[in-house]
Design a protein that fits this description.
alpha/beta; binds flavin mononucleotide; 23% strand
Amino acid sequence: MGKAAIVYYSMDGNTRQIAEAIQAATGFPIARLDTVVPYTGTDQEIIAQGQEEVNRGFRPELKPLDLRPEDYETLIVGTPTWWYTMASPVLSFLTQVRWEGKTLVPFQTHAGWPGHGLEDMARACRNARVLYPKAIRFNARQFGKMETPRAELERWIDQLKAL
Ligand SMILES: Cc1cc2nc3c(=O)[nH]c(=O)nc-3n(C[C@H](O)[C@H](O)[C@H](O)COP(=O)(O)O)c2cc1C
């Protein structure tokens, strides 16, 4: 069994940026979640669709993942914030994994209103041990511009190297 792997969903690249920084520092395998039905439309339409999906706890069907979660002791799972919680593709993933004996390291990117995303991720992973939950703030207007200080991010990533 491998030690740890990184799994993330990212619509606009912020969460991917963090996932790739973890990958670069740790060398852990990385895989991106993707939905069978792509999200399309204007920003406003996608935001409304996200709200509707989050409100009814919708779990979109995912494409096959590039790695097997059962092969890893720890999964570092990243999500954007959608309406104060995790994005619905991440809910799909977390509820597919058998968490007995596994550790979840949840991280969440947001634009100022993280809500209860990290708590909801932990709750979705019954029986998982949860370590080092982390919220990372990005600029609300400029994608890719992190507001959390880089040193703070690096300290968090340093802890993950020891997993
Ligand atoms: C459907 C939708 C809902 C969102 N809801 C929130 C929210 O509740 N709080 C927040 O801070 N940001 C919210 N955002 C902004 C994203 O969480 C933020 O930009 C995130 O870093 C994007 O990650 P990504 O680039 O990996 O997709 C929302 C974005 C979308 C598309």
